[in-house]
Amino acid sequence: MFDKKSLAYYNNTRVIARCTMQFSVRSILNTPGAQLPFAFSMDLSGLDFGGSRPIADPVAVTGSVRNRLDVLELSLQAKTTLHCVCDRCAKPFLREKEVSWRCFLATEKQNEDNDDIVLLEDGEFVDVEDLARTAFLLEMDTKMLCSQDCKGLCPRCGADLNLGPCFCKKELDPRMAILATLLENEPNE
Ligand SMILES: [Zn+2]
Ligand SMILES: [Zn+2]
Q: Ligand 1 centroid to 154 CA: how many Å?
C-alpha cells in the first residue's frame, strides 16, 4: 500500500512538471513585443558519461519566448555546477557550466535545412525542457580536465605529476636508450 502511494505521488509530480515546461505560445502569437518568460530546474543527475554522473546538481533554466516583429524567438540559459572527475589525474573537481541557446519557433517549416527553427506542436506548444536538455547536453565536454595543462598520473607508478615529478626513470625511445647507455658509461670529467 505504501508503495502504491509513493508511486502515485511520483506520477503526479511528473505530470505537473510536464505541464509547466510544455506551454502554449498562442497568447503572444499575434502580439509583437509580447513575451513569455519561463524558469524551472531540470534533473539530469541520472545521465551517465562514461561511468560518471557529472550533472549531479539540478540545472537551472531561465529564458523567454518573445514575439519580435511577428517572429517568435526563444532564448534560454541553462546553468549548473558539474561534479567532474579529471580524465587525466582522476581528481574530483567542481566546474560551473552555463549554456546559452536560441532558436526561432514556427508553425510550419519553410526551410528544411534551417536548424535554428523549431516547429511548434499543434501550431502552439513548445516543450522548453526538451530544448533545454538537448542544448545543455550538446555543450557537455567529451573530455573532463581539472585544468587544460593537467599533467596526469605517471603511467608507471601512478603518482600525480601535478604535484611534482615522480622518481621513475624517464622512459626512453628504444633508439635513444642505446645512446643513453653509452652516455651513462662515459666517465665523468
Ligand atoms: Zn587533472
Ligand atoms: Zn612514476
A: 12
